[in-house]
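Hello Y.,

Per our agreement to keep a running log of every chain we model this quarter, I'm adding this entry. I've kept the format consistent with earlier entries: sequence first, then predicted structure.
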Amino acid sequence: MSAMTAPAPRKAPRPRADALRNRERIVTAAREMFVEHGPDVPLDEIARRAGVGNATVYRNFPDRDALVREVVCSVMDRTAEAAELALAETGDAFAALERFVHTAADERISALCPMISSTFDKNHPDLEAASKRVEQLVEEVMGRAKAAGQLRPDVGVGDLLIVVAQLSRPPAGTDCMRGDRFVHRHLQLLLDGLRAPARSALPGRAVGLGELRAS
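Predicted structure for the entry above:
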């Protein structure tokens, strides 16, 4: 009698395409509403904007912290991709930095603010990995501009990203879409102030993302 062949291990089922699309819609809607209303916006409002049911939201994200974490990670991943594109450019280093800053604002890096101010787990491995990737890539983009003598040497990654986040978030009590039309104008004013040689000495010291996370 021949030995029985052990059954092949079953592969984990792959998520269906519609399930992935629903998850992406939820994250996109959450990012928009966090920017417009803050991280405490009701989950049912996020579900409504995403065009899904409340059960779909909770099936993907068991609690608010999980959703906020996913939003922050997605924004950081897209910001990192913009930095990678800037590094791939071989022309003017400061022009590449400028394009990165404007792209980062369009990606709504102001959604990073909940990570700084919220009580949820800032040391989650996904957040740590995404944050380190952004910090390393943006440091490299800025480092190239500094090496070319185009970027003032007394600014750090945290200085740049926190100001971009603040400028790309509409002031409280204003209409979000109307505020958007001023974002790139004000970002360009910021960028002009970052050019070397510096016209003044900055108080304090350059800020990194690690210091922001610890604050």
